[in-house]
Design brief:
The protein is α+β, with helices and mostly antiparallel strands. It has 4 domains: 24-103, Immunoglobulin-like (Sandwich); 119-205, no CATH class; 222-306; 321-450, Glutaredoxin, CATH 3.40.30. 43% of the residues lie in helices and 19% in strands. It contains 17 helices and 15 strands. The protein has helices at 2-17, 105-122, 125-129, 133-152, 159-187, 202-205, 212-217, 219-235, 249-252, 257-270, 279-288, 293-306, 349-353, 355-364, 383-392, 409-413, 443-450, and strands spanning 24-31, 38-43, 46-51, 57-63, 68-74, 77-83, 88-94, 97-101, 321-323, 328-329, 338-344, 370-376, 398-401, 421-425, 431-433. Helix 4 (133-152) packs antiparallel against helix 5 (159-187).
Length: 453
């Protein structure tokens, strides 16, 4: 009996000595001259919002699933973070950027040095990506070497962090090498440029992208994985409206849940187009291939918007939009004509790139039964810029300014999340295409010809 009592006593002592599992990080800090009201901590499948007080201070406890790589964003500024269970991280921000205090301060300040190393060695993007293959590789290797040197000089750095970051530096280099072909073609103005067969390392060429830990730790790995799935699909696709579930077997085969969710979330915004003849099947496919409730919600929202915008449905309308030539114009004023609507903005590079092609098409169809309407979604503070650009670039057609920019009912009703966007409406006010070809796409003229415009 005494032995049993003694054994129970020992167990009680052991139980008392067991410490609770720590799965949290305490984050605090201060902003000089705060403008933003919230700080966002983000990781893979992790989001946490921290309120910032009027005096610029903030304090919160984060329950993080894994210690590892995250980022903080305040307003438009962002910094990388390494969070370790049980740590107290102090994050300060002033006009010079973020700085850190606490047990992981050296690690978190390392990210700032890493960015500075990249800026110094890469320099101007045009010069960097215009380098020949050998010199570009040499620069990339030099950047990895200087970051490794910085990493190895860290005092008291967590061993898990150092191991993970060494892999991250390799993926950073792979990402730059992977970008080189298209970037060199653009910056060196060599449209048909192709990198040498042996330019990319064999490991990069054969990477399977099924390492969930590396995906969580490395933004470069994330970008490479994302591109490895979608680039082959889009490279062989002339028009997003032609996308079908049968083309997306690579999406079904993704092993990393967070990666699959990211890809499906992107496709939910791009591929649920009212012009897609496989709209219903795409809706079913995307819904089945995500575990993220927010993405499922986005899929339903985009699908429900698109299915009422298919060919033959009554078009949403705009009423009394300001006309650059004076007065206002409504869609009803153009009834009896086809209406080709270009939704754009003065700040949008791809929109401005379409202007020469649009002017050519307008000239070709001058006097035909079609009105060309360019609707700007510029905000009120860009009003003068809009007025000036229309005049200076001698933009033709009917130049309108949406009444509430992105919040305009016409823009919302058409589910426009990105520009440029082109819409074709028939003479009776019904939709021909809610996502019509761009002026630079030969398919636009084919569409016009099929309608005998």
């Amino acid at each position: 009996m005494k032995k049993i009592v003694l054994a129970l006593s020992v167990l009680a002592i052991v139980a008392c000595k067991q410490e609770p599992k720590i799965d949290y990080v305490v984050v605090s800090g201060k902003m000089d001259a705060p403008a933003a009201k919230k700080a966002m901590i983000n990781g893979i499948e992790f989001k946490h919002e921290i309120e910032i007080s009027e005096d610029g201070t903030f304090l919160d406890t984060l329950k993080v699933t894994d210690h590892g790589f995250y980022n903080i964003s305040i307003g438009r500024e962002r910094a990388s973070l390494y969070l370790k269970h049980g740590d107290n991280v102090t994050i300060n921000k002033n006009k010079e950027g973020f700085s850190f205090e606490g047990a992981t301060a050296a690690v978190n300040n390392y990210f700032k040095t890493k960015t500075e190393n990249s800026t110094t060695l890469k320099g101007d993007a045009t010069a960097f990506y215009s380098l020949n293959e050998a010199d570009f590789k040499a620069k990339v290797n030099a950047l990895m070497d200087v970051n490794k040197e910085t990493l190895n000089k860290l005092e008291g750095a967590d061993a898990d962090f150092v191991t993970a970051e060494l892999k991250n530096l390799k993926y950073d280099s792979y990402s730059l090498l992977n970008d080189y072909e298209k970037a060199h073609a653009h910056y060196a103005k060599k449209e048909d440029f192709k990198a040498s067969e042996d330019f990319l390392p064999s490991e990069l060429k054969n990477m399977s992208y099924d390492n969930e830990v590396d995906y969580k730790n490395s933004s470069a790995y994330q970008q490479l994985a994302f591109g490895s799935i979608l680039s082959p699909i889009f490279d062989d696709l002339d028009d997003i409206s032609e996308l079908k579930p049968s083309m997306l077997t690579a999406v079904s085969d993704v092993k990393i849940p967070a990666l699959k969710n990211e890809v499906v979330g992107y496709l939910a915004k791009m591929a649920l187009s009212p012009g897609n003849t496989s709209l219903d099947k795409m809706h079913t496919f995307l819904s089945k291939n995500t575990t993220d409730d927010k993405i499922k919600e986005d899929i339903e929202v985009n699908y429900n918007k698109s299915k009422v915008l298919v060919k033959g449905k009554v078009s949403p309308t705009f009423v009394d939009y300001e006309n650059h030539k004076g007065g206002t114009t409504s869609l009803a004023d153009l009834k009896g004509k086809y209406v080709y609507v270009d939704v754009w903005a003065t700040w949008c590079g791809p929109c401005k790139a379409e202007i020469p092609s649009l002017q050519k098409v307008e000239k070709q169809y001058h006097g035909k039964n079609i009105a060309f309407v360019s609707t700007s979604v510029d905000t009120a503070d860009a009003y003068d810029k809009w007025k000036t650009m229309v005049k200076d670039k001698e933009l033709g057609g009917i130049q309108l300014l949406a009444d509430k920019a992105w919040q305009s009912k016409f823009v919302q009703d058409y589910g426009i999340n990105g520009i440029p966007r082109f819409i074709l409406i028939d003479p009776t006010g019904n939709i021909v295409s809610a996502d019509a070809p761009r002026p630079s796409n030969p398919k636009l003229i084919e569409l016009f010809d099929s309608l005998s415009i």
